[in-house]
Protein 1
Amino acid sequence: MISNLNIIDEGAEFFEISRRNMLKVSAAMFSAPLAERVMSASPPAPSGVRSRDLTQPARTHPPVMLPVALNVNGRQFDVRIDSRTTLLDALRETLAMKGSKKGCDHGQCGACTVLLGGRRINACLTLAVMHDGEPITTIEGLSNGNPLHPMQAAFLKHDGFQCGYCTPGQICSAIGMLDEAQRGVPSHVTENLSVAAVPLTQQEIRERMSGNLCRCSAYPNIVAAIGDAAGVSP
Ligand code: FES
Ligand code: FES
């Protein structure tokens, strides 16, 4: 018959052995260099997959520099650029045009919106080398020598901003959006899909501008400004 005392003794013995083994394993691990410990602690790689030797530095790929002619706001800039550079970084860092803003760098906020041949695009989601010779318009090129583009004037009139960080993207996007509606491009809320030009309503403006976020929540004034520029009654 197993007494309670025996169970306690066996448990104590087991615990002692486990503790001893644990100390031995720990001592062995911590006396080895870090990389060795990490490698030995890692599960084996599946057959056919080579695991990276962590004792060696990671391989880096040298940049591929390509020539590109960036046509921005009517001026041509011939530059050599890392093929991985986004259009947004090319504008801001290579051409020093800081008007287009970097909010998320992931296509989520619209702060980097520019016009490519009149169509609005997120400059952070496209590579500069893909736009060799294509006409790009940024916020700096909208007024075309005149005091202000009508959309810029409407934003001023309606106080369509607070900090202003999203504003260049909002204005470029609004200009592209008006052109889309004019060409009959439907949105998620367009009811009549067979019209040549989609009539703009407050709802259409809000839906079509939903890719441009404003952290200051100046949305009512932004919508009012765009509506004014588009001739939509409030
Ligand atoms: S910075 Fe391009 S969408 Fe946010
Ligand atoms: S005005 Fe500040 S983020 Fe839009």
Protein 2
Amino acid sequence: MKKEQEIKQLFETYSLNTYKRVGPVFAKGKGSFLWDSEGKKYLDLFPGWGVSILGHCHPQIVKAIKEQAGKLIHLPNNLFQEEQAILAKEVIKSTFPGKVFFANSGAEAIEAAIKLTRLYGNKNGRYEVITMKNSFHGRTFGALSATAQNKYKDPFRPILPEFKEAVFNDFESFKSQVNDKTVAVLLELIQGEGGINIASKEYIKNLKEFCKERDLLFIADEVQTGMGRTGKLFCYQNYNITPDALVVSKGLGAGVPVSAFVVKNEVADLFKPGLHASTFGGSPLVTKVTLEVFKIIKKEKILRNTEKMGGYLLKKLNKLKDKFTFIKEVRAMGLMIGVELSVDSFPVFMKAMEKGLVINSTHQTVLRIMPALTVKKEEIDKGLEILEEVFKEIKN
Ligand SMILES: Cc1ncc(COP(=O)(O)O)c(C=O)c1O
């Protein structure tokens, strides 16, 4: 049996069937490229589902992992360590005056955010959180309950009841969900899983002002949009607002599992010892590597590249839109890009993979392209060449 078939057989026999896995067996990666077990090379314009912002195996990240692994990998959170403290300072310096809690995944940090809403609202009997239709906040029970998409929730009902759904980008819809039990709004500024839907500046301004007037917490889920993806370090910085709390993950550790929940100073003291914890959260290994990510972003001028390459990719995709009538719209901010088709996007994703290009298909008809923020112009050109070939086949 070929190695690839053997591995696939192992998955089928031993792994819980929660993922729809496709394509070959991948064996190694470097920058924007992956190689499968047969040695075939792929251009990866969706590395690590938005995680690998510095591409695969960035040499400085590899070095930081090796060095820290030989020094101290894990330490429980009842003891002091240097790495986590320094990273916390870096995160706060990069966001707003506040405090940070480190966890391991997006959903885990969202859980901390949901707990904040309870701590904040309990003083006056408020507990309802408004979230947006087509949002995605994760798979743990709280995060799932906050996710306003029935396809994820229906198999698990009854879910937690205290979440209200509003239409994204519709301020009137938001207001209609507010009552005297409302304590917070939780939203993605750009919905990722929901198909790259970008919040308008006007909407966010209205929402933020309303939250201030009505003493509601404005919580930004930047699991996907954070760490430079949109051309600013955090997406909220494109909107000239400051959230009351922020959730970041995916690109934060550029591949190591880490998330951060940042809370503004005014409410941070609601968390007291014993109210929240995570065994693995903020280990010296991941915090040291994450600190390195911040350094690389500055040193390699990653934000400038994101803006430049994002603009280039958007322009080229719009040219493709003029050629193929089934491309309905291209939506983008920085290197977070959605191409809305009038046909199913999954076959496009599969055909692209066969031709050596990795992208993503989401929300039935949307192609999601989120390259490494280090992506080069030639790589974008190559990717678009393959995509155009696929589009030609789809057309025929
Ligand atoms: C906006 C957003 N929030 C939360 C999550 C959940 O993150 P994780 O899968 O790390 O739990 C995701 C994952 O895709 C996400 O895109």
